[in-house]
Design brief:
Helix content is 65%, strand content 0%. By secondary structure, the protein is mostly helical. It contains 12 helices and no strands. Bound molecules: zinc ion (ZN). The site of zinc ion has 5 residues, from helix 3 and helix 10.
Length: 350
């Protein structure tokens, strides 16, 4: 059946506007004004985005299966001890889904591309909050349970997710209304200072990750003696941390395509490897958290902060609402204005 479908021709880097260009990827670009149907069909055509889409689309279903299993098997709704796990598993479903949708529909227009990736950044922020909620409930070292840091940990994590989304969205186009409107579709900070823009985006995701992991790093790397929660789960945490750093390294360095531009356009470029490492890291993180939850339940129930709506589902809802507002703020200037002006402006800005 697929042989009956005529796929659009793929383009080289010089044939697409600057906003669609990726560092050291020379070929395999989709048409910059694809229809939604073309975007969906491109899942079955080898382009430089195809594996970016599939490497997050398939794991979405695996994580969704994990979430459904927990909801059905553990009667999660009645048991508040399970709520942080539900928040975390939801965030693990949403971030790869948002990412695969962003990569699928990012070639519809310059505006669509920016808005798609704003949602991608918002979903990653939500994942960082999901990690914080689940760490607070099950992963904190025993000796830090109920400390001041523990009590303020989730509110700070909520604040961090907003900073993260704002910084990441800002790194694409600058400040909405002040530095761009519907006519400016080039990547404003990236055009003027690409390194600053890249740096900003790395900080936007590294900072909440590092903050969320303070209790885990302390527990597995520094803590010794009594009250350190030193058990067999630590090996799973090591795997997750190693993969998380590899993920950050790939995102920041653009290896291997930087060493041989054009050689990894379709298979093996850094963004695909970044997706795969992120998913594997999340998988190990999920296993570690579930194990911590099962082993630690009696001690945590007796000694740690009680799990309620206000330290599990509540912060997740606040994070979703605030992130949607941030995304709307950055997207609105791109949506308003005459659409027919787009092609001309895109060309002039490339
Ligand atoms: Zn991606």
């Amino acid at each position: 059946m697929l042989s009956l479908i005529k796929f659009p021709q793929v383009l080289t880097i010089n044939q697409v506007p600057k906003v669609f260009q990726e560092d050291c990827i020379i070929s395999g670009y989709r048409q910059p004004r694809s229809s939604a149907v073309d975007c969906i069909l491109s899942l079955f055509q080898l382009t430089n985005e195809t594996l970016n889409i599939w490497t997050h689309f398939l794991p979405t279903w695996y994580f969704l299966w994990k979430l459904v299993t927990v909801v059905l098997m553990q009667t999660a709704w009645q048991d508040s001890f399970t709520w942080p796990l539900l928040v975390f598993l939801s965030s693990c479903c949403i971030y790869p889904l948002a990412s695969s949708c962003a990569h699928t529909f990012s070639s519809m227009s310059a505006q669509a591309r920016h808005i798609c990736f704003f949602f991608d950044y918002g979903a990653l922020s939500f994942y960082s909050l999901g990690s914080a909620v689940v760490y607070s409930a099950y992963v904190f070292p025993d000796k830090w349970a109920n400390s001041y840091f523990h009590q303020y940990y989730i509110p700070i994590a909520v604040f961090n997710t907003i900073i993260c989304t704002v910084l990441a969205c800002y790194s694409r186009l600058g400040m909405p209304f002040l530095q761009y409107d519907h006519d400016v579709t080039r990547r404003f900070p990236e055009c003027q200072s690409p390194k600053f823009s890249k740096c900003l985006r790395v900080i936007a995701f590294a900072y909440p990750y590092l903050f969320d992991n303070i209790p885990l790093f302390y527990r597995v790397f520094l803590c010794s003696g009594e009250g350190c929660t030193d058990d067999e789960t630590n090996m799973l945490h090591y795997n997750h941390v190693a993969l998380a750093f590899l993920t950050g390294f790939l995102f920041a360095t653009h290896l291997p395509e930087r060493l041989a531009p054009g050689s990894f356009d379709y298979i093996g470029h850094s963004h695909q490897l970044f997706h795969v490492c992120a998913i594997l890291g999340t998988h190990f993180q999920m296993q570690a958290v579930e194990q911590d939850m099962a082993i630690g339940r009696p001690w945590l129930t007796a000694n740690s902060i009680p799990i309620t709506f206000t330290n599990s589902m509540g912060p997740a809802l606040v994070c979703v609402v605030l992130n949607c507002l941030v995304i709307a703020l950055f997207s609105l200037p791109l949506l308003s204005g005459p659409a027919e002006k787009q092609p001309k402006k895109i060309k002039s800005s490339s």
